[in-house]
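QA checklist item 7 of 12: single-chain prediction sanity check.
[x] sequence parsed
[x] length recorded as 80
[x] structure emitted
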Amino acid sequence: SFKIYPNPTSGLFTLEQTGQFIAETIQAEIYGMRGEKVLTGEFSNELKHEFSFRDFPTGIYFVKIGTGKYVETFKLVKTR
């Protein structure tokens, strides 16, 4: 399981693994309201990972997190 904070964000947000099972490799994809992929990333052996989101316009985004066996999607609000 994962959590994203702060939400809403003004530019930086953190993805944190919170469950008992810790994934070795995590794939993150961020989509805009129209379904367009705006950012992707992959990281390994991290409990927390910080994303820079400063250059994106304000609005609602969707963060899709995948570990190979598990997929979770979060709504993320970008403010000024």
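[x] summary fact logged: Strands lie at 2-5, 12-17, 25-31, 37-44, 48-52, 59-66, 71-78.
[ ] second reviewer sign-off
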